[in-house]
């Protein structure tokens, strides 16, 4: 069963899948009819991937995994709200997932919109404003650290959202303390297809 994996082994499995994808050698595992049938009654994902909604960031494809392998939660700019926290707590408490991945990417539209709002002082309308408000601390930190590029801000946002998960959820922080799960931050490069490790909380 996949949930027997340690956080370190789960990360290795994702890393190896991403390497296959980068090299054009994807094996497309667990995507056939028998796999589909085996999952009707139960699921045992080995990781939860909380990533940006960007259409170029399809988790199962870039990590070369299939049905039942990863539990996926996505919002623009990987912004955290109560529904996200509930979904991630479910993956840890009920499914026993040993690894939480926070996945950002270069040229992120949500982060770019936030940088523009910070620079101009003009907030977007509607609920896009909510996204921008939640990403603003990352943009301000990046600017304070003399890192004005959007991709620097993306990395900072991944780090801050990862830390916020551990700080906001007792379920997740307890699982980290007990070594049952870890949180890693990854920044994905659209051109190369590679997901780089940028932060880690817990034992890997």
TrEMBL record:
<keyword id="KW-0479">Metal-binding</keyword>
<dbReference type="InterPro" id="IPR015892">
    <property type="entry name" value="Carbonic_anhydrase_CS"/>
</dbReference>
<comment type="function">
    <text>Catalyzes the reversible hydration of carbon dioxide to form bicarbonate.</text>
</comment>
<feature type="binding site">
    <location>
        <position position="54"/>
    </location>
    <ligand>
        <name>Zn(2+)</name>
    </ligand>
</feature>
<feature type="binding site">
    <location>
        <position position="105"/>
    </location>
    <ligand>
        <name>Zn(2+)</name>
    </ligand>
</feature>
<feature type="binding site">
    <location>
        <position position="52"/>
    </location>
    <ligand>
        <name>Zn(2+)</name>
    </ligand>
</feature>
<keyword id="KW-0456">Lyase</keyword>
<feature type="binding site">
    <location>
        <position position="108"/>
    </location>
    <ligand>
        <name>Zn(2+)</name>
    </ligand>
</feature>
<dbReference type="InterPro" id="IPR036874">
    <property type="entry name" value="Carbonic_anhydrase_sf"/>
</dbReference>
<keyword id="KW-0862">Zinc</keyword>
<dbReference type="GO" id="GO:0015976">
    <property type="term" value="P:carbon utilization"/>
</dbReference>
<dbReference type="InterPro" id="IPR001765">
    <property type="entry name" value="Carbonic_anhydrase"/>
</dbReference>
<dbReference type="GO" id="GO:0004089">
    <property type="term" value="F:carbonate dehydratase activity"/>
</dbReference>
<dbReference type="GO" id="GO:0008270">
    <property type="term" value="F:zinc ion binding"/>
</dbReference>
<comment type="similarity">
    <text>Belongs to the beta-class carbonic anhydrase family.</text>
</comment>
<protein>
    <recommendedName>
        <fullName>carbonic anhydrase</fullName>
        <ecNumber>4.2.1.1</ecNumber>
    </recommendedName>
</protein>
<dbReference type="Pfam" id="PF00484">
    <property type="entry name" value="Pro_CA"/>
</dbReference>
């Amino acid at each position: 069963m996949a949930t027997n994996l340690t956080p370190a082994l789960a990360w290795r499995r994702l890393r190896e899948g991403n390497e296959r994808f980068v090299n054009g050698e994807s094996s497309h595992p667990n995507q056939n009819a028998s796999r589909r049938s085996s999952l009707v009654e139960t699921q045992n994902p080995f990781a939860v991937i909380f990533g940006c909604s960007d259409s170029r960031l399809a988790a199962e494809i870039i990590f070369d995994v299939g049905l039942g392998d990863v539990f996926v939660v996505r919002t623009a700019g990987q912004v955290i709200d109560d529904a996200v926290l509930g979904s991630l707590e479910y993956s840890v408490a009920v499914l026993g997932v040993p690894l939480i991945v926070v996945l950002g990417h270069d040229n992120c539209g949500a982060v770019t919109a936030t940088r523009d709002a910070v620079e101009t002082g003009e907030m977007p309308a509607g609920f896009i404003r909510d996204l921008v408000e939640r990403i603003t601390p990352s943009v301000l930190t990046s600017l304070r650290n003399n890192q004005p590029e959007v991709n620097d801000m993306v990395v900072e946002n991944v780090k801050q959202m990862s830390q916020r998960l551990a700080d906001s959820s007792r379920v997740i922080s307890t699982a980290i303390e007990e070594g049952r799960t870890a949180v890693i931050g990854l920044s994905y490069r659209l051109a190369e297809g590679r997901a780089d490790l940028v932060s880690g909380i817990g034992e890997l």
